[in-house]
# Entry
Amino acid sequence: MDEIQSEHSSEEELLKTFGITYEELQEADALNRTQVLRNPRDPRICLCGHAVSRHSITNGIVYCKPSAMGCPCKKVKPVIAVSDTRKFLRKSRGGGRQHALMLGVAALLATDEQVLDQNRAPARDAEGRLVRRAKTAGTLEWLEPPACELCKRTDVGVMPYLVTKSGFATDEPTGFDALLCLECRATI
# Structure
């Protein structure tokens, strides 16, 4: 160990053995910090139904890993901002109401459930019985006015649907998702 330290008495000499300067190492470290340290509080949700902070782009390829499962998302497209991104960890089981985005919205807006915070003791009444805590609904805001991706209408309701690369409807996640109105959904 002493021989190694004596061979490389300074950091500059050590870095020379790797063929890099201290300045180049600092630039690489700064770049790595900007790529790795995404904003964990980013409230945006992608059209695939998962938090934007769960996406990464490497060599131009999008990777979406909301939890232990992976998502085949091909393009990060933020559509809504929410108060709690933890509700958006679901898997799409089809289009419309079975899409991960809609399942997350349903979980976010659910109210009056018994919620026990792990960091606090359960609430008790004067006689020591457990009290049910009302959960307030989360908030949701569209980043842009919702519009059908085919007819471009904004005056109708839209839902996310799973589509193939060719634009046909499917029930399996392909990585291609579209916001469609009911009329356009019937045509694909």
Remarks:
- Confidence is low (pLDDT under 50) at residues 4-8, 112-119.
- The chain has two domains: 8-37, 39-112+130-187.
- The longest helix spans residues 22-36.
- Residues 8-37 form one domain.
